[in-house]
Amino acid sequence: MSVLKIVLLGLSLSIGATAAFAADEALLSSKVSQRHLIIEPQLNLAGAKSNPIQVALTLDACSGDIDHRILDVLVREKIPATLFVTARWLRRNQAAIEILKAHPELFAIENHGAEHVPAITVLKTMYGIPTAGTPAAIETEVKGGADKITEIFGTQPQWYRDATARYSTDAVRQIEGMGYKVAGYSLNGDRGASLPAATVARRISYAKDGDVIISHINQPKRASGAGVAEGILALKKKGAQFKLLRDIPARAAPNVVSETAPPNGSVSQKENKTHSKTKTKPASAEPAPVSVQ
Ligand SMILES: [Zn+2]
User: In this predicted structure, what is the pLDDT of residue 96?
Assistant: First the structure.
């Protein structure tokens, strides 16, 4: 072997090794500082830049029921989706579970916690929901969600999204330390299943390449769900490719909501002010709650 070939071989091996040990861009721990108090991570598919566009559809099942307007479209049109489910939701939706189990190629089941508790230790409530408060409570919440998923589906969740998609930064480190990637989003489709159907359909149909869409699949009686189904169909018509979060590299940014502790258990007074200071904006510029009970 010539010297040149040996050098080239060595070079390619070192490049391969560098790529293999490159930091996972979906992880947040190295991107948050001690200063950061609460983050609402932004997540995009990494390096999508494709035509047609690639998006990831993520649907939360917090509690409540199953929205067949959405689920039936996904099954009929063979559209993959990442579902974030709680143990609480799994306990009361056996019929929906059977449908999800029948289509493992379409549905990735990920962890939304045991009882839908925000992974926050530094505030008492978020959007009016009592937070976990302690690392021990966060561990119980995360583990409780994972155990139920494994019991029912026989799979290990890889992603975690808490109740409000907001986290104290110590909680992010803890959850990533438990082996999860923390699931943010870049496009808030239904704002906690609170928006009218036409608005939801328009927002989702305008998804850009690399967007991670968040909406809800557990509120069949609200108008939003019809818009989720309509928006998904519009995206498919445009030729969009739907990817599961676990199948494609993603890139997360902290999106700092609050840098200093507010006096009384809520960041609502501070968030607009601090939002304007942060470099990373959420795709939905309004302070939009993503939680729904
Ligand atoms: Zn939820």
Answer: 98
